[in-house]
């Protein structure tokens, strides 16, 4: 890849970067990849070791994947509930990251239409009544009083993050989880002040953001993981998501947007790119569902070949509408040249998922030899390992340490 600025070297790239009230030792963030290392919804030594590996391997900050703000907001079994009863375990987590020299962020969210009754015990909610064909779940239209409760739960969860010693929180406003489903005209048919115009569809997100900020003030950095588009006809597209970003940015409380794409509701490979692993998905299903996946899997998941920096073109569109917050580039980053390109293009930070699952020490390796590419081949076999313990199939199993929960 062509490098415009010859001064961008390992020394100049891996420099500290300011993120709201905190400073990262370098601009590399481990993107949330659900871990499967908290079977009882509690922090375990295995979870700590997994994340510590990325910090020791050279990144600036790791992200504890999807922590639910309420039981109704769970997306999968074994997720951590962000409540005060879990502070003690979460403290062990953040202390270990700090001891290893890095920072810790916690992703906070409510699954909304991605949730299933089997896991939460209640019917999932969406902005409007909706049948999710992937989960075969009917979602009820969420009421304003439930939304009020959720705003409080987001603020409560953010306070738990502060008390647990996190340096940042990442509000999950992407992938058609509850908050981003409000942005989508496909899922949001509301006729109240939360539906209709893009201002109205962004209102819930904005209110959550302001409630969170009021509670935590400057005690940690606030990142918003925001969907740029989701590859679904009539759903989220750049023309509107750049406006969503502008509205949220104008509040002045977002320290950074981590720009993402795709969804967990439909066309899932749009987010991941690379091989569509039908056998991997079928293995997670039983009976007729298994057959259904084999027959229709590619149609449901979509097929999108991997491309270097595949989110870059879309992410560029946000540089004119976002004036206050920093932009974090995500998507297929696994060489030093990718990081240089991101910085040259005006993205002061990058987030990396799969390539770090493959090589937790990839950043250290880049520092030692910046010409060497990362080893991730985007086979996406890691995608289906989330149903047990998230792993790259080429790696030794990380879950060798105890999964016994801390209190
Ligand atoms: C195994 C796996 C689990 C993931 N879990 C989450 C998650 O919990 N929350 C989230 O926002 N994104 C999740 N993602 C998406 C990643 O954060 C990231 O957006 C995506 O993998 C693209 O980045 P990459 O090309 O660097 O992998 C997951 C991705 C993978 C591969």
Describe the structure.
- With 407 residues, this protein is of the alpha/beta class.
- The protein has 16 helices and 14 strands.
- It has a nine-stranded parallel beta sheet. Strands 7-9-8 form a three-stranded mixed beta sheet. A two-stranded antiparallel ribbon has the order 1-2.
- Helix 5 runs parallel beside helix 7.
- The longest helix has 20 residues.
- The protein is globular and about 55 Å long.
- Bound molecules: flavin mononucleotide (FMN).
- The site of flavin mononucleotide has 24 residues, from strand 4, helix 9, helix 14 and helix 16.
Topology:
Elements: H1 10-13, E1 17-19, E2 22-24, E3 28-30, H2 45-56, E4 61-68, E5 80-81, H3 87-99, E6 103-109, H4 117-120, E7 125-126, E8 130-132, E9 137-141, H5 144-163, E10 168-173, H6 178-183, H7 198-216, E11 221-227, H8 238-250, E12 256-260, H9 269-272, H10 278-282, H11 287-301, H12 312-316, E13 326-329, H13 336-344, E14 349-352, H14 354-358, H15 362-368, H16 381-385
Helix pairs in contact: 2-3, 5-7, 7-8
The structure holds flavin mononucleotide.
